[in-house]
From TrEMBL:
Signal peptide coordinates: none
Organism domain of life: Bacteria
Function: Dual specificity enzyme that catalyzes the synthesis of pseudouridine from uracil-746 in 23S ribosomal RNA and from uracil-32 in the anticodon stem and loop of transfer RNAs. Responsible for synthesis of pseudouridine from uracil.
Organism of origin: Shewanella youngdeokensis
Name of the protein in its database record: Pseudouridine synthase
Stretches that traverse the bilayer: none
Coiled-coil boundaries: none
Xref: InterPro entries: PsdUridine_synth_cat_dom_sf, PsdUridine_synth_RluA-like_CS, PsdUridine_synth_RluC/D, PsdUridine_synth_RsuA/RluA, RluA_PseudoU_synthase
Keywords (A to Z) from UniProt: Isomerase, rRNA processing, tRNA processing
Length: 217
């Protein structure tokens, strides 16, 4: 793992895709934290940028700093509770796009490998039979010269789940400076992982909502 130097992108400052009185949808760029860390240098993040425009913005879920894509924020406690419950109860639907090393033997499949925190190397995670259940569905979208473009559908939402699952089956995500060896890190200028779609039930109207952010992997 490389030493983390936080230099968040400034353009675009915010990519807001939708908002109403209850929720805000943002397309987060790679390199921007979802919420502040402990260090003062990490105060600049998706949440604090959003709060400059919407003082009532509340964090509901997170994307890794290096992961780009769709995030939903709440604007009141009722919306926060509803959305967090949907994530916890697996009522939301999420799809990701990832470019991984090599070619998979099977074009689609399910990765069912429990995960646990690697206490010797925080914040890393690792596969462990004694960990929490973690399930990821994958589907090949395109086979390239030395890599494969995949659609990933996590059923659970464990920390670093997609990164660790792809590593566990021998196909780490390109540009992964947490789990990849040097050739994996150097294979891309950023982590090739993007949160493409997010679907959930609106906390006030109770209508199903779906948002999409395309990527150019």
């Amino acid at each position: 793992m490389q030493i983390f130097t936080y230099q968040p992108p400034r353009i675009p400052w915010l990519d807001i895709r939708y908002f109403d009185r209850d929720i805000i949808i943002v397309n987060k760029p790679s390199g921007l934290l979802s919420n502040p860390g402990i260090a003062k240098s990490t105060h600049d993040c998706a949440l604090t940028r959003l709060q400059q425009r919407f003082k009532d913005a509340i964090l509901v879920h997170r994307l890794d700093c290096a992961t780009s894509g769709i995030m939903v924020f709440a604007r009141n406690k009722k919306a926060e509770s509803s959305l967090k419950t949907q994530f916890q109860d697996r009522k939301t639907q999420k799809t990701y796009i990832a470019e991984v090393v090599g070619h998979l033997k099977e074009p689609s499949g399910v990765i069912d490998k429990s995960l646990i925190a690697d206490k010797a190397n925080p914040p890393l995670q690792q596969v462990s039979e004694g960990g929490k259940a973690a399930i990821t569905h994958y589907q090949t979208l395109e086979v390239r010269a030395n890599s494969t473009l995949l659609m990933l559908k996590p059923i659970t939402g464990r920390t670093h789940q997609l990164r660790v699952h792809m590593l566990a089956i021998g196909h780490p995500i390109l540009g992964d400076d947490f789990y990849g060896e040097q050739h994996v890190i150097e294979a891309a200028p950023r982590l090739k992982l993007h949160a493409k779609t997010l679907s959930f039930i609106h906390p006030y109207t109770a209508k199903s909502m779906a948002f999409t952010s395309h990527c150019s992997f």
